[in-house]
Write a structure and sequence with these properties.
The protein is mostly helical. The chain is built from 9 helices and 2 strands; from the N terminus they run αααααααββαα. A two-stranded antiparallel ribbon has the order 1-2. The two termini are 17 Å apart.
């Protein structure tokens, strides 16, 4: 993967700064929990839900490791994409993926809640209390974009330490997220939000290609 050196694309830089500041605020401020309670993404049936959460949730994270992996992927893939798409279009793409991820997560969350209510399960209350946080949906959109725009570029994985073409990396990762989301394995991760980011990213890229705003 080719990345221009000694350059700091403004959108990627400012997104990383905003996410880091948000984590510091929720960790260090005495009302950090109140920030999570107001700006994280809750189920639409939850009394804590607000429509603006489809935007704000992507700047909050569950801890340092959660933030680090998302920001590392944003830095790794986002720089090249911002150069190619331009800062304005890159920002639009990132936001569409993040908000699209939230919408799919809300849809799945509502379906799970409705099913739990129909089954008279006590888990229905639990579903209303657990929020979704993180930039992962938007980041998965970036992974998708890199795979579409550079399908034959080789990505070196950290674990396992193997190299594969970007297109296969995206396909495998997408299938894994679909499997985990449907099967219920690896709970506590918003797998459908990840898929939502990839889906909306794919739709937007092909819309831009159809309208001749980008070429690939």
């Amino acid at each position: 993967m080719y990345i221009r050196r000694n350059t700091n694309p403004p959108v990627v830089k400012n997104l990383i700064i905003a996410n880091c500041v948000a984590l510091l605020a929720t960790t260090l401020l005495p009302f950090g929990d109140d920030i999570i309670g107001r700006f994280a993404l809750f189920n639409v049936e939850s009394p804590f839900f607000h429509s603006y959460q489809v935007f704000t949730y992507m700047f909050l994270h569950g801890g340092v490791s959660h933030l680090f992996f998302n920001m590392f992927a944003l830095w790794m893939f986002g720089r090249q994409l911002e150069y190619e798409l331009g800062s304005q279009r890159f920002f639009i793409y990132y936001m569409v993926c993040g908000i699209g991820a939230a919408l799919l997560q809300l849809g799945v969350g509502y379906a799970e809640y409705a099913h739990a209510v129909a089954a008279n399960s006590i888990g229905a209350i639990h579903l209303l209390q657990i929020p979704t946080v993180g930039a992962s949906g938007a980041v998965f959109g970036l992974l998708l974009a890199f795979g579409v725009l550079h399908p034959n570029n080789v990505i070196m994985l950290i674990f396992p330490p193997i190299a594969m073409k970007a297109k296969w990396f995206v396909v495998i990762y997408g299938l894994m997220e679909l499997f985990f989301g449907i099967s219920g394995y690896q709970q506590g991760v918003a797998h459908f939000a990840h898929l939502g980011g990839m889906l909306w990213g794919l739709l937007l890229l092909y819309w831009w290609r159809k309208t001749k705003k980008i070429y690939f």
